[in-house]
Amino acid sequence: MPVLSRAATGILFKLMSTVAFTSMSTLVRVAGKEIPVGEVVFCRSFFALIPLFLMLAWRDEVMDAFRYVSFRSHMKRGVIGAAGMFSGFVGLTLLPLADSTAISYAAPLMVVPLAYFILGEQVRVYRWSAVAVGFVGVLVILWPHLDVGALGNRPDSQRTGAMFALGGAVCAAFATIQVRRLVNTETTAAIVFTFMALCATLALLTWPLGLALPVIGQWTVPTPLQAFILVMVGVTGGLGQIFLTLSYRYADTSLIAPFDYFSMIWAVIMGYLVFADLPSAYVITGGTIVVASGIFVIWREHKLGIERARQRKVSTPQG
User: Fold this and answer.
1) pLDDT score at 121
2) Is-contact 276 103, C-beta < 8 A?
3) Comparing C-alpha atoms, which of 310, 291, 292, 267 is closest to residue 105?
4) How many CA atoms lie within 13 A of 46 on its CB side?
5) CB 257 within 8 A of CB 298
6) Phi and psi (nearest 5°) for 155?
7) Over the range 175-193, which residues count as b (16 or more CB within 10 Å of their CB) and which as e?
8) Predicted confidence (pLDDT) per residue in 103-161, tens digit
9) How many Cα atoms are found within 13 Å in the side-chain-facing hemisphere of 235?
10) Which of 32, 38, 128, 208 is 20 to 30 A (C-alpha) from 26?
11) Which of 25, 18, 21 is nearest to 275 (CA)?
């Protein structure tokens, strides 16, 4: 298959993943209005296993999902990821779709300093500057939700939602660092399956806790429509994961990563069509700053990757 054709296929799968994840987020916001978040997280994780195992069976990799080198590392990633999913879903239920999506873009920016301090990766001044500018964009998005000065007209639920959405982004950044460690020893099938299984298990614990802690909420028996929505939350999330995995199979990360920001376009469209929401000037301005900073970080990663490859080629003895 020609290189351009493979690249185009990778980009197409990446765009399909953004549509699937945005559809999942929309369904989460619909379900989260009446269903406890813990129950939504359980359905997101449990029913995502259906498309996951279909993909693994198609690729003859089912047994790879049960092979581990360090289960403890999987547990760390699972706990962090589950906390991030729970926080992100709370944000989705309390904020407009475009707002929560824009705040989630803080995660890739946070990965840069975490990679420096935890993984010891070299980060130069260009990326530090881009991250600093990106965080200014995040602050612009959060500003109206923080009830600062004359902007004290936002309901308390939106301030809470903004904090949970930001907490979800922080957890997502830590989870990314953990995944970078896992890929050195673990198969992709094991990483994805264990994460989904652990999230479902941890979410299931909120069932009895909801009886004692009102903030978690008691699980309810869904109506047929609610049950369908909950199943589709998991299926669309699982499809998004599959499309994302396939995109990296066909194209380089540096090529397809910027297309992740198309999710903002879908979020604005879905937010307007389903919830009649329109993004505020703060979301548009801050989101633009964050997206531009994120793309610059990706571009710098690509340039540094080319430089490292060239240096390895020069230093490798020939003949």
Assistant:
1) 78
2) no
3) 291
4) 13
5) yes
6) -70, 155
7) bbbbbeebeeebbbbbbbb
8) 998 888 888 888 888 888 777 788 888 889 989 999 899 888 776 544 445 557 788 88
9) 6
10) 208
11) 25
With H, G, I as helix, E, B as strand and everything else as coil, classify residue 257: helix
Quick check: 211 pLDDT over 80?
no
- The token duo for 4 is 């351009």
Contact criterion met (CB below 8 Å) for 48 and 197: no
Residue with tokens 């994805």: 192
How high is the pLDDT of residue 307?
Answer: 58
Residue with tokens 């299926």: 235
**Measured in Å, how far apart are the chain's first and last C-alpha atoms?**
30
Q: How far apart are CA 80 and CA 75, in angstroms?
A: 9
Q: Round to whole Å and give the CA distance between 286 and 230.
A: 32
**Which whole number is the average pLDDT over 271-291?**
90
Within 10 Å of residue 264's Cβ, how many Cβ atoms? Answer: 24
Length of the chain: 319
d(C-alpha 182, C-alpha 295), whole Å: 25
Q: Which residues contact 177 (CB under 8 A, 6 or more apart)?
A: 111, 114, 115, 118, 119
DSSP string, 17-79: HHHHHHHHHHHHHHHTTTS-HHHHHHHHHHTTHHHHHHHHHHTT-GGGGG--S-HHHHHHHHH
pLDDT confidence tier of residue 90, bands split at 50, 70 and 90: very high
Q: In the chain, where does DSSP find H-type helix?
A: 3-31, 37-46, 49-58, 71-94, 97-104, 106-114, 125-142, 156-182, 188-204, 206-212, 224-250, 253-256, 262-275, 281-315
Q: What is the CA radius of gyration of the chain?
A: 20
Residue with tokens 């309390």: 94
Write down the mean pLDDT value for the chain.
84
